[in-house]
Structure formats: structure tokens, C-alpha cells
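note to self: dont lose this again. the chain is below, predicted strucutre after it. 205 aa total, dont forget to put it in the shared folder this time
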Amino acid sequence: MNAEKIPDIIIGRLPIYLRALQRMADKGMKTTSSQELGEHVGISAAQIRKDISQFGEFGKQGTGYSISYLLDKLREILKVDRIWDVALVGAGDMGHALARYQGFVNRGFCIVLIFDNDKAKVGEKIGNFVIEDTSTMIERIKEAGIKIAMLTVPASAAQEVADKLVQAGVKAILNYAPISLNVPGSVKVQHIDPATHLQRMTYYL
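---
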């Protein structure tokens, strides 16, 4: 299967299915149908069947999907059947919240390094982590072999930090700064700007 051939919009729906299936499994459910899954996530049964069939045949006509099997397969497809180490850059309010958030590990991610360029913050602790100086970032990320970073720095610093992350060998950046980043084609960037999502919603109010 060529990952590049699957439309990104489909990849974006897989974590939504994964989360709903996990909730079903937590309730002790063993099987589900595309209809039932669709009701949980607000996506049509036909769309779910079409999305999942891009990766193979995981269900049987009439019996639906085995929840544990589909969970395993989706984790494998999304490569979260392992724990990914993550570097966090920016120890402001958002950085503190993300560093303390407990919901990453059970979904395949673990923050292992935190950086900031504010000398007053360097050496401080957030939970079990000591904030490190961004001047050591390239070297430390390379050493640790980290491929994923979260960026919670001001917009004015985001591009410079992104350049350093690329230099360090990072291949995926989750960007909370309200600015688009220029990175090589081999690096995947996901932008998370809550204000943009709020503005998208107010259109409907």
C-alpha cells in the first residue's frame, strides 16, 4: 500500500474511528457495524466502509467488524501500535498544558524533551521534565532520534524553530503557532489554531 495514494482526508478520519472503537471496547463491546460506528462519529456508514476498504477487507457482510481486530489494524495503519517520542518546543501556557496532558501515551505518543529559549525557564520542571535550552535542541533531538515535535512558540519565532527542527531530523510538526510554516516536502506539518476553528464555527451562529 502506497501511503501517498490514500487521500489525506481519509487519513484524517481514521483517528476518529480509532477513538470511537476504543470507547466501544472500553464498554465491553465485541463487534460493531459501519452503521453503528457512523452514529458514534457522525459520518455515513457508506463513507466509513469506503474509507476502511482502502486498506483491505476488515469486516464481513452481515456480521460487521470485530472491534479488537479493527482497533489493531487501524493502530497498525496509523503506526500508533508503538509509542512515539515527542519533543515540545515552547514552555508557555500551552506548552505547560500539553506537557501535563495525560491523554497522549494511551494513543501512541510520549513527550520526552521540552525546550524554551527563555533563560528564566530553563532548568525549571514541568512534572517530571526539566526545561532545556533551545540552543541545545538540534543536538538533543538528533541524539534521541526524535521524529515528531510540537511547536507552541509565538508566531514570530515559529519559522526559525521549525528550521532547526528540520535540521534535527524531525519529520512531523504539530504547529500551535498561528502561522504557516515553510518546510521541505518530506516534513509533514499539522496546524492547530483554535481561533481559526472558532472563526469557522461563528459563520454558522
